[in-house]
Amino acid sequence: MKQVLLVNDWPGVGRVAAKINWPVLSAANFSTTLLPTVILSGHTGLPFPVSRHFLAEDFEQFLCDWQENGYRFDACLTGYFADADQVSCFNSYLNAEAPMSVIVDPIMGDDGHLYTGFDLTYVEVMKGLVAKADVIMPNVTEAAYLSGYPYSLQSTHSDITKMGQSLLALGCQQAIITGINLVDDSDYIYFALIQAEKPLQLFAQKKRPFHYHGSGDLASSLIAAFYWQGSELEKAIIETIAILDEVFDLPLNQDPDQMKYGLIIEPFIARINSLLTRENDINETRK
Predict the structure, then answer these.
(1) At the N or C end, where does the chain have fewer CB atoms within 10 A?
(2) What is the C-alpha separation between 70 and 85, in angstroms, rounded?
């Protein structure tokens, strides 16, 4: 059984962040270990104040405990870090460990701006983690900050290609840019797959009138799961978009009273397990 390390924040109330990552990775039959970065009373999109507990010394101590006891991982998925110190600490941990598959969702901004508490120093430190990744999955804002390419509300194919090549130049093997609005296309939003010596590939998803809390976490978890089960990234993205659309279409996920708490994915866990198990069986047969 593949040992997977999940690094992300954990909200008490709300279905986002690690609360979305965990069930998807478990449905993929991975033995998943959580390294929490922040513990919150609720996710930050809720319409009321939330309490936060930042793990500082604890974060590093967790990693030290695992190292001292010989606990090793085959792969890791990273999401939100509390600050640059946590990112630096995790970079040092990866440097000291045996090689593992690393997928980075560099959560730090949206809509052209960094999230509160992050600055350009954080971006520079994040570049060090990006350099170790098999796959990174930034949104357009994060890709712009990491690549140095100007952010725009709408992008051309040329914009995405140049931005993507700058991301690969940081050292990551492959990049998936999410949430792309293309010029002259108001009906779809796009995932872009950028790989060395391959043309840009775009994958369309129908635009929705709502913002779904946790959708990015669900996408990163699914893509990671399919990838670690042996799928090509192209297929991983296509399967992920199909599952996202099914989840978004669930009536409860269109209910304003429920939407503020994040995506309801429980009705889909069995199907996700079936898809990922089948994918693993197919890829094992091909070996």
Answers:
(1) C
(2) 24
User: Which residue is listed with tokens 């970065």?
Assistant: 37
169: number of Cβ within 10 Å: 12
**What span, in angstroms and rounded, lies between the C-alpha atoms of 175 and 171?**
10
What does each C-alpha distance from 280 to 28, 78, 106, 193 come to in angstroms? 9, 22, 27, 22
Tokens at 191, concatenated:
């995932």
- Chain segment 193-251, per-residue pLDDT in tens: 999 999 999 999 999 988 899 999 999 999 999 999 999 999 999 999 999 999 999 99
Q: What is the 3-state secondary structure (H, E, C) of 149-183?
A: CCCCCCECHHHHHHHHHHHHHCCCCEEEEEEECEC
Token reading at 70: 């010989």
Residue type, 105: D
Q: Tokens 């995790």: give the residue.
A: 90
HEC letters along 39-93: EEEECCCCCCCCCEEECCHHHHHHHHHHHHCCCCCCEEEECCCCCHHHHHHHHHH
Residue 110 parent element (H or E): strand 109-110
pTM: predicted TM-score of the whole model, two decimal places: 0.96
